[in-house]
Amino acid sequence: MNAQRGVLLLLIAALLFLSFQLVQPYLSFVIGAVLLAYVLAPLQTRLEARVRSTTAAALLVVAVTLALLVPFVGLSVRVAGEAVTIARELAADDVAAGLQAPEAWLNERLARDIDLSAEIAARLEGLGETVLGTAPDLVASLTHLTIGLGLSVFLLFYLLRDGNRLVEWLQAITPLPQSVQETLYARLDSMTRAVLLGHVLVAIIQGGIAGLGLLVVGISNVLFWTVIMILLALLPFIGAFLVWGPAAVWLVSTGQTLAGVFLFIYGTIVVGVSDEYLRPVIVDRYANISPAVIVIGVIGGLSAFGVMGLFIGPIIVGALKASLEVFDEQYDRL
């Protein structure tokens, strides 16, 4: 490598580093826009057969924004309302009477004097102080979120409109044989579909099925707990059990033994089997991903990218796995 090539590579490396610093504060939003463009790419191709690419991209962006924003706002308002209702019920005087049965059950089993009302009141008081103390940070986070969402919409439009040219440019500058690139992109495509269409869809189905069980046994604020279970269902092995399991115990402890036993059996068989059956059927259709990959990706993704890491993390780890496999298979051609 001569000096001129070295200087050019050094300049490219420096500019890449600086570019990453520019994008890094909103990296999760950028990656989210890329993933959404990937999902919408087939629709963009179909629309381009009838209208211009710019018109097709604009229509998709408007449609997706409304499709995501309207239900999200409605669901957020509903969930927030139910959360407030839960808080009010916990603060109401009649809650103390409702907690007498669980307190007696715990005192009998643990041989200890447990005051659930006092414990809940103390936790709520500490939570209120924490919320008041973090109000400035909350405003800053909302500002960051607003800018990030606007950036995502902006990027989504251009990724849909110019996505094919971007892919062609990446293929042209990538210093790999065409056959290796085709194998790599096909493997990455299967891995991404497995995560987006597999685990996310399974989480929604599993959370919905578990929410139906809570509705049958008469648990209040079902929508709130269903949303929580959908998010938890993105975690293999653990999932919605963290909600319906304690709910079954609570029903038994309050004297609703039949309902509690039904919920436990329903959760173990119906919810559990839905996870064990649907996940292999949907995911293995596109790629063979070990649950360990999903767990590592989800936990690491949450730490690195926040909520978006639930989707980004498994894709990154899965992409690494696919890249290593392609490297091993195509080593002789490199």
From TrEMBL:
Domain of life the protein comes from: Archaea
* Keyword field: Membrane, Transmembrane, Transmembrane helix
Q: Which GO terms describe its cellular component?
A: membrane
**Cellular compartment(s):** Membrane
Q: How does it sit in the membrane?
A: Multi-pass membrane protein
Q: Which residues cross the membrane?
A: 7-23, 57-77, 138-160, 194-216, 222-243, 250-273, 293-320
Q: Which family does it belong to?
A: Belongs to the autoinducer-2 exporter (AI-2E) (TC 2.A.86) family.
Q: What is the name attached to this protein's record?
A: AI-2E family transporter
